[in-house]
Amino acid sequence: MATNQEEVSLIGAVGSPFVCRIQIALKLKGIEYKFVQEDLANKSDLLLKYNPVHKKVPVFVHNEKPISESLVIIEYIDETWKQNPILPSDPYKKALARFWSKVIDDKIAAPFFRAVFAVNDEKAREKNIEESSEALHFLENELKEKFFGGEEIDFVDIAAVFIAFWIPLVQEVAGFELFTPEKFPKLYNWSQEFLNHSIVKELVPPREPLFVYFKAKYDSLVSASI
Ligand SMILES: N[C@@H](CCC(=O)N[C@@H](CS)C(=O)NCC(=O)O)C(=O)O
């Protein structure tokens, strides 16, 4: 547990999958923290001071020491507060968890975003959806139990909140299909179990307002590209 002497805060933005990862990790550990809402359209001096390299949320601040990049932050949280481990202790399993989390960011999320932004380049959109889809198939084959962590959620499950909640939402906004129950039955079942997990359920943002928000952003992207 964080003690009374410790100051723990999270600079974030509601609706960010990367921020949601940290909220899940902190809840799993039972750590109290202050949530500092960032306006990404008008970034605060605090964000620019604490994350000058990427200028992005989340930034986790522990006793005035800032840490950026969601996967790095989760590892820090896991090493600092030992209860309810998030990463496996076995070195090989730990390496695999890091590997698959990186696959989620580099080979699934990154091409997915590129596909979303390729509003009037059908070829680029197809190529990026294909890249994301291939990596999703590899991840589907990796899923052997209820969660990636077995009976309990772990590092890869938390990283994959992006797949469970954000991909279905944003693909609907952008009008394409990447992640469907027919194409990825195991991952789809996992996503339902994961989103129903008592901790995750309470931290994933409400779908409807986020859909409306992303749709407005997407529509303005489309209009700007015409
Ligand atoms: N790789 C970063 C990604 C963080 C990220 O993309 N954050 C977005 C919010 S979802 C952001 O701050 N965007 C602001 C910007 O790009 O200017 C992580 O894992 O923390």
TrEMBL record:
- Give one GO biological process term: glutathione metabolic process
KW Transferase (keyword) present: yes
Spell out the molecular function terms from Gene Ontology. glutathione transferase activity
**Domain GST N-terminal, residue spans:** 6-85
Q: Which reaction does it catalyse?
A: RX + glutathione = an S-substituted glutathione + a halide anion + H(+)
The record's section on InterPro entries has: Glutathione-S-Trfase_C-like, Glutathione-S-Trfase_C_sf, Glutathione_S-Trfase, Glutathione_S-Trfase_N, GST_C, GST_C_Tau, Omega/Tau-like, Thioredoxin-like_sf
Q: Does the keyword Transport apply?
A: no
Q: What residue intervals traverse the membrane?
A: none
Q: Which residues form the GST C-terminal domain?
A: 90-219
Concerning PANTHER family, the annotation shows: GLUTATHIONE S-TRANSFERASE, GST, SUPERFAMILY, GST DOMAIN CONTAINING, GLUTATHIONE S-TRANSFERASE-RELATED
Name assigned to this protein: glutathione transferase
Organism of derivation: Vicia faba (Broad bean)
